Amino acid sequence: MRHLILIPVMLAGSLTVSACSENAEETVDRAFQDVNVVDETNLNDVMLTVADPNEAVDYFQRALEGNADRIDLQRGLAKSLTRAHRNTEAVAVWGKVVKMDGTIPDDSIDYADALIRNNEWERAEQILDSVPPTHETFNRYRLEAMVADSNREWKNADTFYETAVGLTTRPAGVMNNWGYSKLTRGDFAEAERLFGEALRQDSSLFTAKNNLVLARSAQRNYTLPVVPMTQTERAQLLHTMALSAVKQGDITTGKSLLREAIDTHPQHFEDAVRSLRALEIG
């Protein structure tokens, strides 16, 4: 009898061990799945930030094989195409993303960005208009300002630029765009001020330095601004100033600035040499 009693007890024990073993295996499997998800998420982030844009495109295209319904991968592909300046392709993928389950307002804003890069301003405006007005972000207002500029809606552009500046801790780029908007309107003094503000935020922004020289030259101020610059940048800015002077009819000043640019450049400055030669022949 004692042995008969032990049999079911032993069977129960073996079943318990088996169940524990299965639960342990399931736990391990789930753990590895969780690890894989984390690893994939980290890799996706890496591909979107530090990876070569075209390598990132290849990565997301491979990841989408058999996973075309995953919006995170489609979004990653669209962002990578934008980073790679493959704008037509980016527009096509963003067009898919905004129609998928799980799309968010930022997807539409990135879609509008891609459309602007592809010179499709009207469609970009339509997409931005579809974003709820309560979704207030730096990128949204930065793009709204650019669209308003393209429509020559100056008052709206200024409002959007001002709002965008207040929504970022790194406003140099948008200040430069705002300054260029003022420059195209002929408000040279205000453009000069905005370019100076942009450089106070980011002294390495060469585009703002070049635009600042254009704004000063438009006022016939042919002296370089007091901003940090390399010797090569100094030569390039002198060249820009020279061309601006020539355009305004100040030929003698333009020639003098071109000679200074040639002497300043640490290497042979072919563009300045060609411009000076053309003026002297003319």
Protein model, in words:
InterPro entries: TPR-like_helical_dom_sf (IPR011990). Pfam families: TPR_16. Keywords: Signal. This is Tetratricopeptide repeat protein. With 282 residues, this protein is mainly alpha-helical. Helices cover 77% and strands 0% of the residues. The protein has 14 helices and no strands. The radius of gyration is 30 Å and the shape is elongated. 34% of the residues are buried.
List the helices and strands and how they pair.
Blueprint: H1 2-49, H2 53-64, H3 71-83, H4 87-97, H5 105-117, H6 121-130, H7 138-150, H8 154-165, H9 172-185, H10 188-201, H11 206-218, H12 231-247, H13 251-264, H14 270-281
Helix pairs in contact: 2-3, 3-4, 4-5, 5-6, 5-7, 6-7, 7-8, 7-9, 8-9, 9-10, 9-11, 10-11, 11-12, 12-13, 13-14
